[in-house]
Amino acid sequence: MKCQRPQYFHLPPHTHTTRTMHKTILGIEGTAWNLSAGIVTETEVLAEATATYQPATGGIHPREAAQHHATHIASVIRKAIKSAGDAQIDGIAFSQGPGMGPCLRTVATAARALALSLNVPLIGVNHCVAHLEIGRWQCRIDDPVMLYVSGANSQVLAYRGGRYRIFGETLDIGIGNALDKFARHAGFSHPGGPKIESEALAATEYISLPYSVKGMDFSFSGLMTAAKEALKKHSLANVCFSLQETAFAMLVEVTERAVAHTEKNDVLLAGGVGANTRLREMLEIMCKDRGAKFHVPEKRFMGDNGTMIAYTGLLMLASGESLSIEESMVIPDYRPDQVDVTWK
Ligand code: ATP
Ligand code: FE2
How much distance in Å is there from the Cα of 222 to the middle of ligand 2? Predict the structure, then answer.
């Protein structure tokens, strides 16, 4: 188990939020391997505490990850509350989905128990929407096209008519999963994305790999298999480089088309894969060519974190949204475009 020190930092208020929300919300994230509790007010992140599940071998095992979360959830929440100076909590937000069923259920059980014992509202947050909201808050942008890229998810979204609409998405696996699977095959431990990124720096040539964009959607499974095959003939560095170049070009192409279609002037990058420097560089170039502005939050807000759940919960509660215990079932396949964005 790796526990990060709780961090204190101040953020500007969300520019487009006009309601006053003098609330303190605790948010719990635990959809996959990261268990995290964050505490926020409208203008400040008061505390965050995290415990990360590290698989001994292979990828994330859902039941083992859930067991990890069950073991550490009490101490993570306690640590966050203590770091926030024993702040009074006005609401409990939790990741309701999407994610791994056993992990989601563990977090939801803790959230329900906490909300009941503190007698405060319970708020079910869509994990993908939370990645986007923390980015909008941090970068102070109102209405961007968003590229959300993580382990399980790869989507291009933009706000229209009360929801975050999905303009394009993966037809099979998420980009992070593709990178992690390839990396595992190449002998790297989980997570593979950062290792591929550093290995790619030593590349000497680009190897042609299948580029798969269909309409506004993309797929990564065939690319990942072809990259594994390419390892038989080419150096690891060249394959890592070519895998990144091909996959990221697909993502940037679809993002660019969404910008053209929506005529929005900002692009926001969200999700754990957004930590990648080469992906950022390619998006930056595309935005410059189009006269759009590229935004990316600090790295600690890009991967899964409790703060993003707390902050989205705060926005939702301020617009009158909370759940009864009966309504608080987890939704493992919860899509961001199922959420009515009542707070915007
Ligand atoms: P979600 O539930 O939103 O899919 P997640 O559980 O995958 O989230 P995140 O922290 O958002 O969690 O993303 C993790 C992914 O990010 C992993 O696949 C990891 O390999 C990838 N990743 C992290 N850093 C980098 C990097 N520098 N380059 C490429 N990929 C990266
Ligand atoms: Fe995530």
Answer: 23
